Amino acid sequence: MEPTDNDRRVPDRYEPGEGCLTTAVRLPVRIVVLVLVVPVRLVWDALAALGRAFHRTALRPLGRGFAWLWRTLVVIPVTWTWRTLVVAPLGWLWRTLAVAPAVWLWRYALTPLGRGLAWLVRGLGVALVWLGKALFVWPWVALWRYVLAPVGRGIGVVVAWLVRYLVVVPARWLYAAVLTPVGRGIAWLVRGLGVALVWLGKALFVWPWVALWRYVLAPVGRGIGVVVAWLVRYLVVVPAQWLYTSVLTPVGRGIAWLVRGLGTVLGHPRPVGRGRAAGRPVAVCTAAGRAGAGRRGDGGRPRGRGGLRALLAGRRDHLPGHRPVPRHAAAVGLRRAGALGVPHRAHPARPRHP
Question: Which of 39, 66, 263, 308 could be joined to 268 by an S-S link, Cβ 3.0–4.6 Å?
Fold first, then answer.
């Protein structure tokens, strides 16, 4: 086996200051202690252990027995004897010789005496209160009631009379004769000043703008409107009429003639009704525009709006240049259209407006 750390322990070195003499003295001392002190200490520890065991097993139960005998044979008899032979007689003597006389003295002597003293003190207090009122209250009450109050009322009447005839009456006269006219004059002046300011404000800020609008802006606006209407008429309407009359109408008629010739050549019936029906709305619009542009009433406003409204509503009797067609002519036109093969469309009945 390998040596452990205990086997390898290095021997203690001598402390500084110790030498061979100290070590030589220490060894005999240790031997003496080991021979003499250690056995004595072992004997003492054994005796202490025996004493603790004897105390637990013998002395403690013996002490408890002696305590029970003492309490039973000495304490209880002495207590009973003290309570019966000493305390009870002394209590009876105290109640008989001290408490009973004291109660009788309190009930039949001190209580009546105290009640008499309280009645006497109460009477003395009432007398003192009455004397205090007679000396310090009633004279002042009489002085206030029969002297100061009448004097104060008289002074109040005099002061009220003086205030009335020295303050109120002059104040009323001043208000009625001076302040009221002055106030009315000031009110009239303020009212007149307000009217003048209102008139001046109108003259400076309202009437110039009204005159400017009435005599400058409105005529200028009407003139501008007339000029714009004239320009629109001669720059838009008249060129449009000329374009329609001189260009679009011949071109449309040429196209219709060409289509009709092509239909004849190809063997199809000519669309008499459809071609005329397609050209009618444009002609009607042109007639309405001419009538509206040509007729003007008072003020330069056109009256040609009825034709456009009649065209939009599907009515032709109010259009300009419209001639009513007789019924027999309409019937002849229908028969011719049927002979040429043009289908006839029945128009639905329109509700009559009231």
Answer: 263
Residue 307 has pLDDT above 50, yes or no: no
Rounded to whole angstroms, the Cα distance separating 318 from 307 reads 6
3-class DSSP string for the chain:
CCCCCCCCCCCCCCCCCCCHHHHHHHHHHHHHHHHHHHHHHHHHHHHHHHHHHHHHHHHHHHHHHHHHHHHHHHHHHHHHHHHHHHHHHHHHHHHHHHHHHHHHHHHHHHHHHHHHHHHHHHHHHHHHHHHHHHHHHHHHHHHHHHHHHHHHHHHHHHHHHHHHHHHHHHHHHHHHHHHHHHHHHHHHHHHHHHHHHHHHHHHHHHHHHHHHHHHHHHHHHHHHHHHHHHHHHHHHHHHHHHHHHHHHHHHHHHHHHHHHHHHHHHCCCCCHHHHHHHHHHHHHHHHHHHHHHHCECHHHCECCHHHHHHHHHCCCCCCCCCCCCCHHHHHHHHHHHHHCCCCCCCCCCCCCCC
Is residue 311 pLDDT above 50, yes or no?
Answer: no
Count CB atoms within 10 A of the CB of residue 241.
14
User: From the CB of residue 37, how many other CB atoms can be counted at a distance below 10 Å?
Assistant: 10
**Which tokens belong to 174?**
């001043």
Phi and psi angles of residue 296, each rounded to the nearest 5 degrees, phi first: -135, 140
Whether pLDDT at 325 is above 70:
no
24-28, 54-58, 114-118, 234-238, range with the lowest pLDDT: 24-28
Contacting residues for 318 by C-beta, under 8 A, at least 6 apart: 306, 307, 309, 310
% of the chain beyond a pLDDT of 90: 54
Q: pLDDT tens digit string along 146-186?
A: 999 999 999 999 999 999 999 999 999 999 999 999 999 99
* CA atoms of 104 and 97, how far apart (whole Å): 11
Largest CA distance in the chain: 178
